[in-house]
Each structure stands twice: as structure tokens, then as C-alpha cells.
Amino acid sequence: MLKITLLIICAFIMGSIPVGMLVAKAKGVDLKRVGSGNIGATNVLRSLGKGPAALTLLGDMLKGTLAVALGRYFGLGTFYEGIIGLSAILGHNFSVFLGFRGGKGVATSLGVFILYSPRTALITFVIWMAVVITTKYSSLGALISFGLLPLNIILFDSKDKLPVALLVTLFILIRHTDNIQRLMKGTERRIGERV
Question: Nearest to residue 153, comparing CAs of 118, 104, 111, 110?
Fold first, then answer.
């Protein structure tokens, strides 16, 4: 149990690394002071362009993938792999380096499922891309694609992964409360919109 606890803590700290802020800082930009103030790839895209946004996206995804890889390396089984992955997502959302504030967890969540459930990760990404290309709203893409994640787990993977999928969907919905309100009001910024 000590090993599991240490891995959960390690995943939380790893998830807490604010990749977007580090990328922006290297460009001389304080990401919390531009655009939406969010540390994720969408705000980096608006504020700094495609290259830095791609780097942020990959870095945030990697945090989730590495967390699950840790659980798998130590042979902890599906349940604890998922818990360790969730810890990385929570670390991203409530970073110890940012006073327990952070991002929305979309890229890190996708990174978790790349290893935890590769098929559903691909489906989630394709749905996200389809919604973004159609509507230009990153937040709507996240809400729809991760909203469908539990169903995709039921259809295309083992049901013992469903609890983790449900929690990830819940986290995404909670972190996107403001986006949902802006979408309903028609004031949400479109992806790629420069600040």
C-alpha cells in the first residue's frame, strides 16, 4: 500500500508541472496574464501560436501517459493504473506549483487513456477533432468527446475501466462550467482566435 500511495503522490506532482506556463515563460510571456489565463494548449495557441501549443499539448498528454505507465511498470493492475492516472489529472487541475490552481485536464486525461484504453483514446480524439473542425470550439469538443467516454468504454473496452472513465468525465464537466455558460451565451472564444 505504501508503494501505491507513493506512486499516487508522484503522479500528482508530475501532473502538477505547468507545461504551458513553462513554454510561455521561455517565450517571455506570463500565460496567466494573457487570453483566458488558462495554462492549457488552447490558450497557448491563442497567445503564442501553433508550435508552442503543440509542445504544450504533447507535454500535458505525456504527464497522463507516464502516470499510467508507472502503475503498469509496478504491476498494480487496471484499477490502480486508473487511480494513478486520475492523480496526474488532478495534479494538472490543481497544481502544487500554482497554489492548487491549474488547467482543465483535457490533454492530460487523453494522455491517461492513450495507455489505459488506447482504442477509446483514439475515438475520443477523433470525436474531439470532428467537433473542433466543425464548430471551432475546443471546449465543446472536450465536453462532447469526454461526455461520450463512458459509453465508449462500455462498447469498446472492459467495464472495469468504467469507474475511471466516469470520474474523468465528471472532472471535465466540472472544470468546464464557465465554458458551458459562455457557450450558452454565445461568448465562448473559438479555437485559434488570437488575443
Answer: 118
Q: Which three cell numbers stand for residue 72?
A: 503498469
Q: Rounded to a whole number, what is the distance in angstroms from the first to the last CA of the chain?
A: 47
* CA torsion, ordered 101, 106, 108, 110, to nearest 10 deg: 170
Q: Check residue 49 and give left, alpha or beta (phi > 0: left; psi -120 to 50: alpha).
A: left
What is the rounded distance in angstroms from the CA atom of residue 181 to the CA atom of residue 153?
A: 28
**Is residue 79 helix, strand or coil?**
helix
Report if pTM > 0.85.
yes
Using the structure block, give the residue that is written with the C-alpha cell 503564442.
48
Q: Which residues contact 129 (CB under 8 A, 6 or more apart)?
A: 141
pLDDT in tens, the chain (195 residues): 889 999 999 999 999 999 999 999 998 888 888 877 788 888 898 888 899 999 999 999 999 999 999 999 999 999 999 999 999 999 999 999 999 999 999 999 999 999 999 999 999 999 999 999 999 999 999 999 999 999 999 999 999 999 999 999 999 999 999 999 999 999 998 875 655
Axis crossing angle, helix 177-185 with helix 138-147, rounded to the nearest 10: 120
All three cell numbers of 114: 492513450
Domain boundaries, the chain: 2-185
